[in-house]
Every structure is written in structure tokens, then in C-alpha cells.
Fold:
Amino acid sequence: MPLSEEIKKRMEIVRAAVNNSPYYLHLGMALVAFDEGKARFEMTVKRHHTNIYGAAHGGAIASIADSACGLAVATRLVAGQSTVTLDLRVNYCAPVKEGLLVAEGEVVYMGKTTAVETAKITQNGNLVAFAVATHYIKQSAPPIPNG
Structure:
């Protein structure tokens, strides 16, 4: 099901807010695409993302997974709703080196108060992590900065 014009407009405002957020800028992470129940984030892993072994720190990978899941839910919200992470589980499959990291989140269940999502995190087309998240759907939303 394609996104309505209202949701597309709201998601473009969200994309601008997310991509200009200090945390996302700090990590170098960006929302690059979204569709009904889906969101794609990209992050260029650099030396400052790595641990003492030269691989990306798990927290950076968890951040992009959580973001992809949360923004996938955002595409299914109606005006006045917002979402917050209740649970995030990440399975790390392979070390992540410097270079482009992609996270594709998808809603697998959408209820009235909770949603469940998955995210596949890949580098060079290879699965490096897989995440499952649960989000609480709040019936009141704070205003979107610059929205």
C-alpha cells in the first residue's frame, strides 16, 4: 500500500528533522528512504565508530538498527501519534569494518499500542546484524522540531 500524500509530507519533515539531529549528525547516520512500514538508514563507518579491535562498536550498529525500526513504524502512524523503543535485540553476525553500513527496517506487526519490527543490517551486500524491536505507540506526539 503506497503512502498517502499526508504521510509522505509528514515523513519528509521527519526526515529533515532526523537528518539534522545532533545524534544522527554525530554518528553520520541518515534516513535515506522510506515507504509504507519500511525505512532505510545509511551510515559511513569511520575510525571513530570502531572498537579496539578495529570493528564497528556494537552500539553504533544498534543505533542504526533502532533508527530503521523506529522510522519504519513512523510511516504507519497517524497525526498526533509518536513512538518510543520498548525493546531492541541485536544479533551480530559479522564484524563491521569501515565503509557504508545499511539498515533496512520493516514493521512486521502493528497494533494499537505496540509495533514489532525487524531490521537487516548489511555491509557490501552481506548481512552483518539482524535486529528485532518493539515500539510503544503513544497517542500524543511532541511537535517535530522545525516541522
